[in-house]
Design goal:
Strand content: 5-15%
Order of helices and strands: HEEEEHHH
Helix content: 40-55%
Number of helices: 4
Shape: globular
Length: about 100
């Protein structure tokens, strides 16, 4: 992971999600349910349109598009509303896992 300050670090830290915790067999224990998933009983299940919206958002970030453009495209292409906090949490998650986009 790169060293030095990250862009918008204070914004990202202010909206940090609580750590998602699941058991080894996939049962939900605690934490914020990420965009693209919902709880069904004690299981996380995918919401396909939201996961597709995540792919579109990440692709558009790589194309240097800004949040307002991304939000409009996601709504148009997937009929999904992606709020600024959800977008920021998604990008933070990608950054933590894969590094800068």
């Amino acid at each position: 992971m790169p060293s030095g300050p990250r862009p918008n670090a204070s914004l990202r830290e202010s909206i940090a999600m609580s750590e998602l915790q699941v058991t080894e067999d996939g049962r939900y224990l605690s934490g914020d349910v990420p965009f693209g998933y919902t709880l069904w009983g004690d299981r996380l299940v995918e919401i396909p349109a939201e996961l597709d919206a995540c792919v579109t958002a990440i692709r558009m970030v790589k194309q240097k598009k800004n949040y307002p453009e991304i939000a409009v495209a996601v709504k148009k292409e997937h009929s999904v509303t992606l709020s600024q906090p959800q977008f920021d949490a998604l990008i933070e998650s990608v950054y933590r896992r894969y590094g800068p986009i």
